[in-house]
Amino acid sequence: MGASTALADRSGGQFGPECLVSLPRNGVVNLTRNHWSHSAGIGWSISAVYPPLTPDTMGYFCVFRDEFFKENLRLNLGDLPLFSVGAYPVFNLTDNTNQEVHMLFEKMITELNSNYIYKYELVKNYVSELIYLAIKLQPSKNVFQHPDASSRITSVFSEVLERQFPIEAASQRFEFRSPKVIADRLAVHVNYLNRAIKKTTGRTTTDHIFERLTAEAKALLKYTDWNIAEISYALGFEDQAHFNKFFKKQAKINPSSFRQV
Questions:
Q1: Whether the Cβ atoms of residue 134 and residue 88 lie closer than 8 Å to each other
Q2: How many secondary structure helices (H) and strands (E) does the chain include?
Q3: H/E segment holding residue 238
Q4: pTM of the model
Q5: Strands 45-47 and 39-41
C-alpha cells in the first residue's frame, strides 16, 4: 500500500460492519460495506481484515464506520443509493476523475498527520465528497458481476443479514432471523431464496443465519457485560431458555460456561 487511512469512532476492537473506500493504482475505485476483523488505527481503534494483496499492490484505502458521520452531519449511509442492497460498488475512473480521487486521499492523509484541532471534520468532508462523487458515476457492472441469478440473490441475502450487526445496545433486536422474513424483505419467495443459497454455497439459508447468530452471541458474551437475558432478547429469542438451548446446540457449550472460558 502506498498510503492508507483508517477511521473509526469506536474503540474496543469488536466486530462490526464498516464501510470501505479503496483506490488501487489501476484506476478503479471500490466503495462497499463489509465485515472486518483486524486492528488498525489513527488514535481510534477499528477491526478490519483486508483481502490478500500482492507485494506490488499500490493505492489507497479508507475504512470508517457509520457513526463517524452521524455526530453532526446526520448522514445515514444506508439511505444512499451507493450503499443500498444489491448496489454495485466498483467504478471505472477516467484520468481526470482518477486524479480527483487521488487528491482527496492525499488531503485526508495530510490532515490525519497534522495537529489541526478540526482535522476530522475536514476528513469527513473529504470522505463525503468521495461518496457523492461515486454516486454520480456509472457503476462498472462488468467488473463486479455475478455469474448467475442464484449468486446475485445469495450476495444480497448476505448483505441483508450482515447489516443487522453488530448489536450495539441491549434494546436493539435481531429481526431478520428466519428465511421467510428475509425472503419477504427481498421480495422473493422463500423457496426460491432457499434454492439459490443452497445452489451457490452448498448450505441452507438457516445454516447461514444460525452461524451468524452464534458468532454474534459469542461476541456479546465475550465483549459486553450484558446479562444473558439481555443478550437473549437482543438476538431475538423469546426467553433465555430458548437462547441457552440454541447456543448449547450450536457451540457445544452453554452461554455461562463460554463466558468464563
A1: no
A2: 10, 7
A3: none
A4: 0.52
A5: antiparallel
pLDDT in tens, 144-201: 566 678 888 888 898 888 888 888 888 888 888 899 999 998 889 999 999 999 998 8
Q: Is the dihedral of CA 146, 88, 197, 64 positive or negative?
A: positive
Cell of 210: 444460525
**CA 257 – CA 234 distance, rounded (Å):** 20
Q: What are the Cα distances from residue 101, in Å, to 96, 111, 257?
A: 9, 16, 50
DSSP-assigned letters across all residues of 21-49: EEEETTSEEEEEEEE---EEESSSEEE--
Q: Write the DSSP string, 123-175.
A: HHHHHHHHHHHHHHSPP-TTTS--SSHHHHHHHHHHHHHHTT----STT----
3-state secondary structure of 18: strand
**The three three-digit cell numbers of residue 228, written as one number:** 444473558
Determine the Cα–Cα distance for residues 192 and 204; give it in Å rounded to an integer: 12
CA 228 and chain centroid, separation: 26
